Every structure is written in structure tokens, then in C-alpha cells.
Amino acid sequence: MSIIIEFVIIPLGEKSLSKYVAQVVKLLEEKKVKYQLTPMGTIIEVSSLRDGLKIIEEAHEMMFKLGTDRVATTIRIDDRRDKERVMEDKVKSVFEKLRGEQKLEY
Q1: Mapping DSSP to helix (H, G, I), strand (E, B) and coil, where does residue 73 land?
Q2: Tell me, what's the pLDDT at 90?
């Protein structure tokens, strides 16, 4: 069973977040977590909710170790238990539906 979690960690008061994001990506790679970096957040695919929340907690705490005094973290969880799927399946499903529909004329 795969759980897909999107999270955003923002060290408040910082203008550029790339150095913080880079450290989170290093953490995900060390833990061998499947992830997708987007312009506005990070998506991970994990085998359990507990595993995902533990990783996000580590990333959240890392911000303080990197010197920030305040952190805001947002988490969205997709926990579907009726069938197995991975994050690529969700995107593939949308594109299949797009290809199957006729173009609308304006």
C-alpha cells in the first residue's frame, strides 16, 4: 500500500528557500524515499502514514537546526486503501481522460 503525501515546509522570514529545500531533498535521498519536487512543495510516496509523518517531522526539525526560528509546515495526505497505486498513476489517469475527450470549440 502506498500513501502519497504532499508537504510544504517554510522557514518564516527567509526570502529564498532553495538551500532549505536542498537539505530536505538530501534527507529524502538518504532515506531512499520516492519523491517528486514541485515548484510549490514536495510529494513523497511511502508505505505507511507513520513513515511519512516521521520523515516530515525530521525535515521540519531540520529547519531549526539550519538556523531558522519559526517554521510553518503544511501537509496533505492521500491514503487510498481500496486499490494499490503510485503517484504517477494519478497523473496518468488525468492525461488518459484528456486524450479520450473531444476538444471543445469556442
Answers
A1: strand
A2: 81
